[in-house]
Amino acid sequence: MGEMGKRKLDTGWFAARSTEVKLTGVELTTTHPPSSPDQPWMEAVVPGTVLATLVKNNLVPDPFYGLENESIIDIADSGREYYTFWFFTTFHCKLSGNQHVDLNFRAINYSAEVYLNGHKEVLPKGMFRRHSLDVTDIVHPDGENLLAVLVYPPDHPGRIPPEGGQGGDHEFVRNLLFLISMHYSSVQPMKIVDPHLVSSFFDNYKRVYLHATTGLVNKSARVAECSLNVQVTTEVKGGFCLVEHLRTEHVSVPPGASVQYTLPELFFYKPHLWWPNGMGKQSLYNVEIGVEVKGFGESDMWNHHFGFRKIESEIDSVTGGRLFKVNGQPVFIRGGNWILSDGLLRLSKKRYQTDIKFHSDMNFNMIRCWGGGLAERPEFYHYCDIYGLLVWQEFWITGDCDGRGIPISNPDGPLDHELFLLCARDTVKLLRNHPSLALWVGGNEQVPPEDINTALKDELKLHPYFQISTQSGNSQEDIFPLLDDPSQYLDGTRIYIQGSMWDGFADGKGDFSDGPYEIQYPESFFKDDFYKYGFNPEVGSVGMPVAATIRATMPPEGLQIPLFKKLSNGYVEEVPNPMWEYHKYIAYSKPGLVHDQILLYGTPTDLDDFCLKAQLVNYVQYRALLEGWTSRMWSKYTGVLIWKNQNPWTGLRGQFYDHLHDQTAGFYGCRSAAEPIHVQLNLATYFVEVVNTTSDELSNVAIEVSVWDLEGKCPYYKVFENLSVPSKRTVPIFEMDYPKSKNQTPVYFLLLKLYNISDYGILSRNFYWFYLPGGDYKLLEPYRKKKVPLKITSQVFIRGSAYEIRMHVRNTSKKPDSENLLYKNRFIERDSDGDFDVASLEAVNSRIEEKKEGGLIRRIFSRFQHEANALRVAEVNGTEVGVAFFLHFSVHASKPDHKEGEDTRILPVHYSDNYFSLAPGEEMPINLSFEVPPGVTPRVTLHGWNYHTGHTIL
Fold first, then answer.
1. Which of 292, 312, 379, 445 is an active site residue?
2. What residue stretches are annotated with the Glycoside hydrolase family 2 catalytic domain (predicted)?
């Protein structure tokens, strides 16, 4: 008997430009198949764009490097034939006489001809849709199958107007012609298609029902007598699985028919709920639907992780902003905008995992999939489920595609409305079972044409149950006999909003009231007049990466730092070099409004100095942005999304990590500010505030306040005890009277600690640096020469190529004062946090590719089958007392044949914290986790404001 299941076809592809191939598709898949990457054939990148394949084979320069993108001919100039490509591969499949084989395509841009063993099929147009071809009568069940796909670009690729279109970094979006990975699946006569899972809640989430409707397709010429089996499992400790439900239904499907079958609901009492990041655990159940056909046995099986949760959304009566609730609890949204993982669509699970975990590490709880991008692959949403990131999913209506460039091309775009709706419905079916998916949005800063908008509103309307309070006493028996089963809707569980600035977002009327997108004074974010609407879907600022990234992505002429041009009004204008300007650099000054924030630290001397000072500003800028919004939680704001979290290319604006996956200091400013429990200083009122976004009241807590000068002295110290902070509130606690008090110092550090009185466990720690009004940070320049000693103890845990390093970093310049300062507070880890070993989530002995993807439920990362190295101690010598300022670690490959200028960084690395500072005598735990290439020994290096030469720690 053949094997039932799926096999991905994302390796072993060749590609060639169609005009250079003199053979037909029939010949390629019968008598003259390419056997090696010889001219004109080359190794192909699948998934990926045609441009990705050309870059891989060095046929065009890397468009992410310097100005090389300008040397690549655009499709508007070359014509469609130049970027029409053949893709070719082979595969084997073993089938029994009763099995059927489907060839499945995730998405192709924009249309294709498919040839398999000499047989031709034409795929319909449209980049946002799946295709499935029944090739049962074509495949060679016991031999090699030859597959060739001729991929055509869009019929109307268009041209970017000289003045650009609507949106951000449009210039890099050229030649987006891609073949997304495909797979073949083999089943018996019955096929399962697009099941829909919905949960309904009663009695304050104690009683839960799981609803399921699935498509069934009978591929045979006989009536299929089926047993439809549903199994719901969860993982318990030790990796064991608990079967929560097991049910079988008998279904009869006519020959050749396609039916929708709704299963009886399954009842759960007090299930584990799925929560957004920072609100609780992301509990997931594994739902498996299988079908057996009488006379044939098991025919097909479908598997998906499912989270019990209810998402509600309304316009808040106090702020006018859109208010989200999950499982009845209001969620203060702090997140950002997502463009693409990679501009050449070289998409992978590993990259998705890193991307989404970075967002979780920043304590974000929402990602907006911006409408100028695409509907991501299911793996993206899978990791959002795993890490608790709510997803705002936007459809691809935006002026970047059609309509609002200069000049306006077609305000009624897209050209084919029916095709758009077909692709939209298919996208909904693909993504609707993910608990992270929070809402659908029609377009970015615009709404779809009237007919499309009307259709989306109708087809994505809420099921009546989701307009009924979960707290009501109505029973399931009272409600559902009167309604269609909720799983019979296209979605029905989450709202549809027509555009990103409508209905509770920005001014709610679409009047371009998002933004701004430039550098701000940190205190501006706290002021009444900064942003007057309740939910800002886009507010942006700077995003300069570290110097090593600039060197890795630009030639020598791109390493020149900006010129600082003094203007007559006293402001400074930054003049970047042409490469930085091309890569969308945002200046750290705004002449007439904001003085240059880098020059506050002194004029940069070179690239390293400039980028280090930029990181100081990045940290301050983004911490202030989120703290300013959180300071007005529920009183003025319901949420904010930053433009943008990352760049899908080597951009120099609005990002928390670069395309190479190295974080900026803004990453850690956000991580601090978006803590579920957070202590902060309101920069407008100078009140110390405590933020509690959790569902529990804080009680019996205290705040320690200490001020440190550049001599290592503490001129100000206070403790405020016996504090209580209600749930979901930001509470001002006391007004800082320093530097109004005596003994002022021109530049000083402020350390805030919120801790439990019972055990001195730190709930939140926040470190600021300030100058007196009218001053600047230039006194920090000579402070760089201050030699402050450090002691770092570390332990390394290794499993294969994965490393985890646990360190304690201590400023040893002063002994702790046990009677006063709380140096040895115990840092508390949130229960819902864990650095999960997602590698253990991958499929094992799976019969289909998605089965047990992620292995039921996450396992804790620290559960290594590891070897533990002995405790190591590293000391950085120094004789002076003071703050160890702006410390940051990096991981490098130890290479004996290291070449000068070579980028030796190992990326990505997940840090529990970075770009941190330590007061005299203070100690902090820092954890790192990363993977190393085969045969590479990692080296951990410490840098800092006082440690600019770098110190090897491991």
1. 445
2. 322-454
Please report where in the chains the tokens 């300007």 appear, as a residue.
Answer: 581
The DSSP call for residue 108 is B
Q: Are 449 and 424 in contact (CB under 8 A)?
A: no
For 129-158, what is the mean pLDDT?
89
The Cα–Cα gap between 808 and 872 comes to 11
pLDDT band at residue 236, thresholds of 50, 70 and 90? confident
Q: Identify the active-site residue in 292, 376, 538, 675.
A: 538
SS3 (DSSP) at 913 = coil
Q: Are 363 and 645 in contact (CB under 8 A)?
A: no
Mark whether 538 is an active-site residue: yes
Inter-CA distances, 5 with 187, 662, 912, Å: 7, 38, 40
Amino acid identity for residue 467 in this structure = Q
Alpha-carbon Rg for the chain in angstroms = 29
Buried b (16+ CB within 10 A) or exposed e, 219-235: bbeeebebebbbbbbbb
349-361 and 378-387 helices, crossing angle to 10°:
30
Nearest to 178, CA basis, from 318, 343, 379, 419: 343
Residue pointed to by tokens 């079908």: 291
Token look-up 């001219």 returns: 39
d(CA 266, CA 534): 39
At position 583, the amino acid (one-letter code) is H
Whose tokens are 């318990």? That residue is 236
Q: What is the pLDDT of residue 182?
A: 60
Catalytic residue list contains 144: no
Question: Which secondary structure element, helix H or strand E, spans residue 353, and what is its range?
Answer: helix 349-361
Q: Which of 660, 27, 695 is nearest to 330 (CA)?
A: 695
Q: Residue 367 and residue 369: Cα distance in Å, rounded?
A: 6
Closest CA to 108 of 43, 46, 36: 46
Two tokens, residue 341: 């993982």
Residue 336 · residue 368 · CB < 8 Å: yes
Number of H helices, E strands in the chain: 13, 49
Does residue 910 contact residue 928 with C-beta atoms inside 8 Å? yes
Pairing of strands 826-827, 761-771: parallel
Could you give the 3-state DSSP secondary structure of residue 283? coil
pLDDT digits (tens, 9 = 90+) for 801-838: 999 999 999 999 988 775 566 666 677 765 544 443 34
**Which amino acid makes up residue 471?**
Q
Residue located via tokens 């957070």? 678
Give the DSSP per-residue string, 481-533.
GGS--GGGSSS-SS-EESSTTBTTSTTSB-SS-----S---GGGGGSTTS--S
Contact 665/619 with Cβ under 8 angstroms? yes
pLDDT at 34: 95
Beta carbons within 8 Å of 292's beta carbon, 6+ residues apart: 226, 227, 229, 298, 299
How does residue 408 score in pLDDT terms, banded at 50, 70 and 90?
A: low
Residue 28 gets which letter from DSSP? H
